[in-house]
Design goal:
With 513 residues, this protein is an alpha/beta fold. It has 14 helices and 26 strands. The strands form 5 sheets. It has a 16-stranded parallel β-sheet that branches.
Length: 513
C-alpha cells in the first residue's frame, strides 16, 4: 500500500509537458505519424485539439482500407480547415490509390489548394491499376501534379505519363525524389521532365514501359540512381549517367555507357545485375576514389579470353567486391585497401574451357583480398574435357609460374564432388582455409579423401596439393551461439538424419603458402 506521504506527493505532481506553449506541442506532433498525432487528443485538455493545428499533415488511404469515401472526406475536410483558418501548413504528404477519374479530380482540387496555401514541402505517392482491361486503358498522371512548385517527393505507380500530362512547362523545380514504377513513359517526355527538375537527388525507375534511353548527366545533385526492368533479353534501356554527385548506382537489365575518363568522386556503391557494358575500355578509364562496394551479377562483356586486356577498376578504397556469373570474368583492381573482401560465386553449366586457368588468373588478381569462392556445378563434368587443362596446370605449377592463392572459404555445391578432377584442380590453384558447407552425413568420407596419402585416386593433380595439407579438422555450426565450434565424427552420431546440421572443414597448410 502507498503511505500518506506518497499519496501527497502524487497529488502534487503536475503534467509539465501539457503545460508547454502551444507551438512547442505542435512541434512535438510534427515528428509523429498522422495516426499517432490524432491519438494524443485523449491525453489531456491541452492536447485535445493540438493535432488539428500541427504544421504538417500526413495521409495514407492504407489506414482506411475499405473506407475510401471516409478517407476522401477526412483529407478534404482538413485542407479546408487549414485554409479557412489561415493556419500554417509547412508539409503535406499524401498516399492514395487513384482508381477512377473521380479521385483524379479530387486530387487536382487538393493540389490547387496546397498551391494557394503556400505549402513548402509536398510529398505525393499515387498508384493505380489499369481500368477497362480489354481496351488496356490506364489513368494518366494529373497534369496539376507537375504544376505544384512545392512538390519535393513524387512516387507514381501504374500510370501513363505523356506530353499532355507535363504540358508546356514543368514547374516542379524543388523536386528531390522521383520514383516511377510501372509507368508508361516515352524518352522525350522523361527527358523533358528531369531537365526541368534540376534538384533531383534520388531517382528510382522500375518496369517503366517504352523507356529506352536515359541521359541523366545534367542532374548535378543526383546522389542515388536505381533502375530495373523485367522484360525480354532483347529489350533493354540504354543508360548514360556520370554526374560526379552520385553516391549509389543500382541497375538491373540494361545497357550502360560511361564516358571515358569520368571521375565519380562521391560514388561509394555500385550494384549491377544483368547489365551489358558498351565499352570495357571506358569503364577501365573511370576513377572511383570513394567506391566501397562493387557487385556484378550475370553481367555480359566481362568474360574476355585470358589473353585479352582486363577490366580495370581504379578504386583505392574498395571494401567489398561481389561477382556471380556463369563465366570467369577478366578483372583487376588498383587499390590501397589493406582489408577488403572478394566474394565469387561461379555456376558451371557445361564442360569448362580453360576454366581452371582463367579462375587462377582471377584469383591472382584478387589475392590481396580475403577471397570466398563458391562453385555451383549445374552439370556433370566429363574427365576427358579437362585432360589438356590438367596437363597445362601441372606443367605450370611445377615450373613455379602458377603459385596457389590463399582462399578464406571454398564451397562446392550441387553435383560437384570434392575429388573429381575439377576439385583436384581447384585445390591446386587455391589453398582454402575452410571448406563447406558439407552435408554432415558425408563428412567422414570427405575427411578420409582429404587426408588420403596413399592408394585410391592418386592422379597427378592430387599429388600437387596433398603434400602441402598438414591438418584437417571438423567444425559444426551452433545456431544458438551463432558460431562455429570444433567437433568430432562421434558427436555427429547424436543427430537425426533429417536434422539440418551445418558442418565444414578447417584446413591447415604449410606455413610458407
Amino acid at each position: 500500500m502507498k503511505n500518506a506521504n506518497e499519496e501527497d506527493a502524487g497529488s502534487n505532481c503536475t503534467d509539465r509537458i501539457s503545460d508547454l506553449p502551444k507551438d512547442i506541442l505542435q512541434r512535438i506532433l510534427y515528428f509523429l505519424s498522422q495516426k499517432d498525432a490524432v491519438r494524443t487528443s485523449v491525453l489531456s485538455k491541452s492536447w485535445r485539439n493540438i493535432w488539428c493545428t500541427r504544421p504538417n499533415l500526413d495521409f495514407s488511404d492504407n489506414n482506411f482500407k475499405k473506407f475510401k469515401q471516409e478517407f476522401l472526406f477526412v483529407v478534404g475536410n482538413n485542407l479546408r480547415r487549414y485554409r479557412d483558418q489561415r493556419m500554417c501548413l509547412e508539409e503535406f504528404s499524401l498516399c492514395i490509390f487513384l482508381g477512377n477519374y473521380e479521385f483524379v479530380s479530387l486530387l487536382e482540387k487538393w493540389i490547387a489548394a496546397l498551391k494557394n496555401m503556400g505549402v513548402k514541402e509536398f510529398r505525393l505517392s499515387i498508384y493505380s491499376k489499369r481500368i477497362q482491361r480489354r481496351r488496356r486503358r490506364s489513368v494518366k498522371v494529373p497534369s496539376v501534379v507537375f504544376e505544384a512548385e512545392s512538390l519535393q517527393d513524387l512516387h507514381a505507380e501504374g500510370f501513363t505519363l505523356d506530353q499532355t500530362t507535363i504540358g508546356r512547362n514543368v514547374l516542379s523545380k524543388h523536386l528531390k525524389k522521383l520514383h516511377l514504377e510501372k509507368v508508361e513513359i516515352e524518352d522525350g517526355v522523361f527527358q523533358k521532365t528531369i531537365s526541368n527538375c534540376p534538384l533531383i537527388e534520388t531517382m528510382t525507375l522500375k518496369s517503366c514501359k517504352k523507356l529506352r534511353n536515359i541521359k541523366a548527366n545534367n542532374l548535378r545533385r543526383l546522389k542515388h540512381f536505381n533502375f530495373s526492368f523485367i522484360g525480354t533479353p532483347d529489350v533493354r534501356c540504354s543508360i548514360e549517367i556520370y554526374p560526379s554527385s552520385l553516391e549509389t548506382i543500382e541497375i538491373e537489365h540494361a545497357n550502360i555507357l560511361l564516358h571515358k575518363g569520368s571521375q565519380f568522386r562521391n560514388l561509394n556503391s555500385i550494384c549491377m545485375y544483368d547489365v551489358k557494358f558498351s565499352s570495357l575500355d571506358r569503364f577501365s578509364s573511370c576513377k572511383f576514389p570513394s567506391l566501397k562496394e562493387l557487385a556484378l551479377v550475370y553481367c555480359d562483356g566481362l568474360e574476355e579470353s585470358i589473353e585479352e586486356s582486363q577490366l580495370f577498376i581504379d578504386a583505392p578504397n574498395i571494401d567489398s567486391f561481389v561477382y556471380h556469373g556463369c563465366l570467369i570474368p577478366s578483372i583487376s583492381f588498383s587499390t590501397t585497401s589493406r582489408e577488403w573482401s572478394s566474394t565469387l560465386s561461379l555456376d558451371i553449366t557445361g564442360a569448362p574451357s580453360s576454366w581452371l586457368l582463367k579462375l587462377h588468373k582471377l584469383l591472382e588478381s584478387l589475392s590481396r583480398s580475403k577471397i570466398s569462392l563458391t562453385i555451383c556445378q549445374l552439370s556433370l563434368v566429363n574427365d576427358d574435357d579437362i585432360i589438356q587443362e590438367r596437363l597445362d596446370l601441372v606443367q605450370g605449377i611445377k615450373s613455379g609460374n602458377k603459385p596457389a592463392v590463399v582462399v578464406k572459404k571454398l564451397v562446392l555445391r550441387c553435383n560437384s564432388s570434392y575429388f573429381s578432377p575439377l576439385s583436384n584442380g581447384l585445390l591446386c590453384i587455391c589453398r582454402p582455409r575452410k571448406i563447406g558447407n558439407v552435408n554432415y552425413t558425408d563428412s567422414e568420407s570427405v575427411f578420409k579423401n582429404l587426408m588420403q596419402r596413399e592408394g585410391g585416386n592418386q592422379d597427378e593433380l592430387r599429388q600437387l596439393w596433398v603434400p602441402d595439407l598438414e591438418e584437417v579438422s571438423l567444425e559444426i555450426y551452433d545456431d544458438n551461439r551463432r558460431q562455429w565450434d570444433p567437433t568430432s565424427f562421434a558427436n555427429l552420431l547424436d543427430y537425426d538424419e533429417g536434422e539440418r546440421i551445418r558442418t565444414r572443414f578447417a584446413l591447415k597448410w604449410r606455413e610458407n603458402l
